[in-house]
Amino acid sequence: MRATRTLAASAAVVVGALALAGCAGSGDQGSSDGTVRMTFWHNSTTDDGKAYQEAMAAAFEAENPGVEITLQVVQNEEMDGKLQTALNSGDAPDLFMARGGGKLADIVEAGQVMDLTDRIDDATRDALGTTIDAFTVDGKVYGMPTAVLPGGIFYSKDLFAQAGIDTPPATMAELGDAVAKLEAAGIAPIALGAKDAWPAAHWYYFFALRSCSQETIESAATERSFDDPCWTQAGEEYADFAALEPFNDGYLTTTAQQGAGSSAGLLANHQAAMELMGAWNPGVIAGLTPDGEPLADLGWFPFPAVDGGQGDPTAMMGGIDGLSCHVDAPAECAEFLNFLLLKENQEAFAEAFVSIPASKEALGVVADPALQEVLAAYEDAAYVSVWLDTLFGQNVGNALNTAVVEMLAGQGDAESIVATVNAAAAKE
């Protein structure tokens, strides 16, 4: 599998090679009875996902007598806020979900996360390849990746055929034509869960990826300046597209992944034809179909090219989900991470979540047709950026997401997005 490139977590190295190949306080080193207790926060709300996490914890406990792992499910949209509150209060979990980028760099700077550089097994490091760069800050590793999650547009092949769309759109003009054909056929073109903000902002991210050069995105990640005209162009392109009214009715109050009425649920139940989302989407959709099975006609295509854009049309954007240990977590936390990255456990992860594992050794179990299309595009990508809100860190990222939703709600425009983000960056 060919190497691609990704925007990594390090403030000094923004682009690097990526080869796919109740809460208890942290640091409970052992109780009076000699038991080592760890808390683990994860966002696995589906039955298969929760079952996987529980099975992994039980298996590790069986292999390591005297270790107890307490799992707590935190809904995805609540994870960042709750985790930051817990970290700041000194009552953080020992093991928690990490997203890399500026968000990870922020907690590294605050001294809240364990340095794993010398705690990673050689076999684990080899299997992960350079996906581990996403959790590397200033040359040190502070997390281990578990899944590679590039974004793009998932769609219903049956609804496309019903609307007379023969091939997935490759340009924004073609996407506009597809929207018109779907509307003419009485089909909601695109599902959008804008209530959660980040799904709406994802559209801006991709317009920016197509409008801005790689060098401009790198510069914004390090300099926190968004004055290049391409950032405004991205907002204008987005506003023009939104003027076509491509999104489901009530999209501003629609959630992303919670229930049949969410944007993922609309696609899962053929009530909308498309959704822009990361590669976790097939697993989420599978949990929302009437029979609880993967959507049989689910397809995927890359975000279309933008006329006049400076970005490489093959560039992709997405996330690399992973896990980090609190700075005061017991040593067994790092051992558990190595355990989770074993080939058989990463294969089980990919099957449970219908996603792409971080370990190149486990890629053979990726059988979902849509995910195979993601992988094919990923291999050919000129570079892969992490989501902009992850790249820029929580404060700037949240300001960006909010400003995008305000534009869609008629309370802002392309210029106000840039002004809001610059103002947030100036406060850091």
From TrEMBL:
<dbReference type="Pfam" id="PF01547">
    <property type="entry name" value="SBP_bac_1"/>
</dbReference>
<keyword id="KW-0732">Signal</keyword>
<dbReference type="InterPro" id="IPR006059">
    <property type="entry name" value="SBP"/>
</dbReference>
<dbReference type="InterPro" id="IPR050490">
    <property type="entry name" value="Bact_solute-bd_prot1"/>
</dbReference>
<protein>
    <submittedName>
        <fullName>Sugar ABC transporter substrate-binding protein</fullName>
    </submittedName>
</protein>
<feature type="signal peptide">
    <location>
        <begin position="1"/>
        <end position="26"/>
    </location>
</feature>
